[in-house]
Amino acid sequence: MERKEWPLWEVFIRSRNGLDHKHCGSVHAPDARLALQVARDVYTRRMEGVSIWVVKASDIVASDPDAKPELFDPAEDKIYRHPTFYQLPDEVNHM
Amino acid sequence: MYTQSLSIPDGDPKGPRKVENPEYEAEFNARIDAGGFIEAKDWMPEKYRKTLIRQISQHAHSEIVGMLPEGNWITRAPSLKRKAILLAKVQDEGGHGLYLYAAAETLGVSRDELTEGLLSGKAKYSSIFNYPTLTWADIGVIGWLVDGAAIMNQIPLCKCSYGPYARAMIRVCKEESFHQRQGYDLLLQMMKGTPEQREMVQDAVDRWWFPSIMMFGPHDSDSVHTETTRWGIKRISNDDLRQKFVDATVKQAEVLGVSLPDPDLKWNEARGHYDFGTIDWEEFWDVVGGHGQCNVDRLAARNKAWDDGAWVREAAMAHAEKQAARALAA
Predict the structure, then answer these.
(1) Which one of B35, B162, B253, B284 is separated from B232 by 20 to 30 angstroms, measured CA to CA?
(2) Looking at CA atoms only, how far is residue A27 from chain B in angstroms?
(3) Which pTM value belongs to this model?
(4) In this predicted complex, what is the ipTM?
């Protein structure tokens, strides 16, 4: 039997207006229109969404997990970027 | 879910990611010990990957095959309300299968390979679905006992160490709760009916009770799980989960007004748990081994659905390719 697997799409859902679209899973579908339809059936059976994005998985470029240290560690020792770093007098500390 | 096809820049200073590498393994173990999650593209031991593919795909197959015994009753549901509920439940099972296949695919196996495993009989699915659904009461009992046992098994998986699997399980567990409650509700209604209806419920409970508590798998003394436990895939042992299920179910049976078919079932004050009778493991292994009442039918139904759908899958793909080519030419 010849098999030609449908391409894979990543699904992002906005659960309600005012919130970001968030990745929730993936589906196989032959084209974008059907990917939306399948995503709607698989991921929003209980009013989980008001808007869906589908993106072909092969079009997503991801950072390498092994590059985590060089990408993200530099932020670790920059505590002065957070408001809590600054100790102010009690009278004005709610600033 | 972050699948194998996400492209990641090549070249890794520590050497090929595929090989077993003690440095990677130490990092992996440290993360598990710290209660952290492993994500799709992280390095993992081959055995961890293989174990997960086997477990997640078996789980996915179980959801898909699980649609068959219940689908059997959709056209014969006694009311429009019950038909709508059953349709929603069977649709959920299909959805659960899809969440889980997607999670398995993040480990580098294709959907077609997974499907092939089920259709050829190479891959297993939960043996509970090889029992027939003889009456409408079976639909209620499946929700109450079979889905109840499944929930007990699945809740610890929401915290399993593999991120995509854990996230899929959170989604599954949320929906399973509806499955169990609708089953119990259906039975409550039948128990308020005629003597024949009450007998029907008791008969279904008599047939499904032992198969349900077999769903937790062999006794701990007969099952080796050292690695899955070490890796944070399995967090509670088979016997502990089974005991938890029995303890929770006795009261539910009482409220419903049915008896559980086990003369040895009684409260043990010293243990603080219910004791229960001997499980017929010969039957369990027989059904797992392909000799249950419905094994042949289930696989035949899945193969037929796959074969009958082939032309639709091919036509949809051909149409998509034609449209894409036209858009490119325009």
Answers:
(1) B284
(2) 7
(3) 0.90
(4) 0.86
